[in-house]
Amino acid sequence: SAAASPPHTYSEVEPLLRDSTHGLVIPSLPLPAALQRPTPYGQTLGDLRLLVLGSQSAGHSFITQLLLEENEEIVDVGQWEENEDGRTIHASTDWLEQRDAHGLERFEPTRNVEIVELPGYDDTTN
After folding, report:
1. Which of 95, 108, 91, 107 is nearest to 48 (CA)?
2. How far out from the chain centre does Cα 29 lie?
3. Is residue 5 over pLDDT 70?
4. How far apart are the first and last CA of the chain?
């Protein structure tokens, strides 16, 4: 039978431990921001389409921002889309819960609110 090796002292093992943990990288995964909870009214609102129009100095964008910002019914606001008739933005008052083939949950905005801003008209011409 082979002879047992003598026990190592801490002073012999400590440099080995320090060298083995020197290049250790601990991964971290950032968590996504929490979704805003829909209100009972927002969950039952359904589809809403608003048309904002007025004279050139009426402040269309200001009115739209008042409707969307600091509104507890709105849980998600999309990006402006420019088109030939003005511009459009979609917002959501609820989330659609979907599951993929692996059973993972995913939440998508309902995009049930549409606001269309038409270009301002000149009230001095026809």
Report:
1. 91
2. 17
3. no
4. 109
pLDDT digits (tens, 9 = 90+) for 31-46: 878 888 999 999 999 9
pTM above 0.85, yes or no: no
Q: Within 10 Å of residue 11's Cβ, how many Cβ atoms?
A: 7
How would DSSP label each residue in 18-78?
A: HHHHHT------PPPPPPPPPPHHHHH---EEEEE--BTTS-HHHHHHHHHTT-TT--EE-
Distances (CA, A) of 1 to 4, 27, 118: 9, 45, 93
- Tokens encoding 50: 């608003």
